[in-house]
Amino acid sequence: MGLRMKFNLVLLAVFLLGFGVTGWISYELLQRNARDEVVRNAELMMETALAIRGYTINQVAPNLQMQLMRVFLPQSVPAYAATQTINELRKKYPDYAYKEALLNPTNPRNRTTDWEADLVHDFRNNVDKKEITGERDTPTGRSLYIARPMQIKNESCLVCHSVPSAAPASMIKLYGEANGFGWKMNEIVGAQIVSVPMSLPITNAQHAFRTFMISLFAVFAVVFIVLNLMLSWMIVRPIQKMSKAADRVSTGDFAIDEFSDGGKDEIGLLGASFNRMRRSLQKAMQMIEG
């Protein structure tokens, strides 16, 4: 096996090892960053919903007290305001979702589905748990969700949700008496759930990974070619030339040119040493023949 082949095999083995390790590390890092981006988007959406709820409670509802005595306005309900606002956002970004999922809601659209009910029961069974983050498959692809418990901490909520007789007549007229009652203080009645698609960040991460790996391979290919050219020009050719010259000298053929001074590197020093050996051997042969 020639020197060039040994060099290339070692270089290829080192590259494959580095390529594999670098690929694994970069893939994990890009995927983690993509997921962190999705989580940040979900948290931003959750905080937006909370801000809408707070605005509705502090700024909207107090100014509608007189109207609420005559007719029930869903717009004064924080959950309704937050949901409607996010629904406007979903007209442009349909894969994003926000829901205040309740086990026993006044508005039927807020009733929990099976997986949402599991989250609510998890919160009810673990009252110290403040947030649940997970992933699930949806018809549009993989989605990340963040859920937070909805706990009754304000007695004003019980005005509309304790017993039908205490609720505003206008609300009973709109939604009826069958649902949304029997709530108690400090009871966890539902969960705020934000769902954010993972497809775009994951796709971007995979595209970045492919681009990085292709670039890494291209850099290696260039380095491989350059190193082989340098190896051939600076090492293999001079050694092959010396090998042929040594073979001729070994048979008594001294009619070869001396190697030119190639510099002070190892190959140059080897050439100079070979020249001295050739001259010494030639003189020794002349003395023997004389």
Number of helices: 8
Counting structural domains, the number is: 2
Strand runs, count: 4
Shape: rod-shaped
Low-confidence stretches: none
Largest sheet: 4 strands, antiparallel
**Terminal Cα span:** 42 Å
Strand order of the largest sheet: 1-4-3-2
- Please provide the ordered H/E string of secondary-structure elements: HHHEHEEHHEHH
Helix share bin:
55-70%
- Average pLDDT works out at 84
Brief write-up:
61% of the residues lie in helices and 12% in strands. It is an alpha+beta fold.
List the helices and strands and how they pair.
Elements: H1 3-60, H2 65-70, H3 78-90, E1 97-102, H4 114-125, E2 132-138, E3 141-151, H5 158-161, H6 169-175, E4 188-197, H7 199-250, H8 266-289
Antiparallel strand pairs: 1-4, 2-3, 3-4
Account of the 3D structure:
This protein is α+β, with helices and mostly antiparallel strands and 290 residues long. The protein has helices at 3-60, 65-70, 78-90, 114-125, 158-161, 169-175, 199-250, 266-289, and strands at 97-102, 132-138, 141-151, 188-197. The protein has a 4-stranded antiparallel sheet, with helices on both faces. A hairpin with a 2-residue loop joins β2 and β3 (141-151). α1 (3-60) runs antiparallel to α7 and α7 packs parallel to α8. The longest helix has 58 residues, at 3-60. It is rod-shaped and about 135 Å long.
Key structural traits:
290 residues, Helicase, Ruva Protein, domain 3, 4 strands, rod-shaped, alpha+beta, four-stranded antiparallel sheet
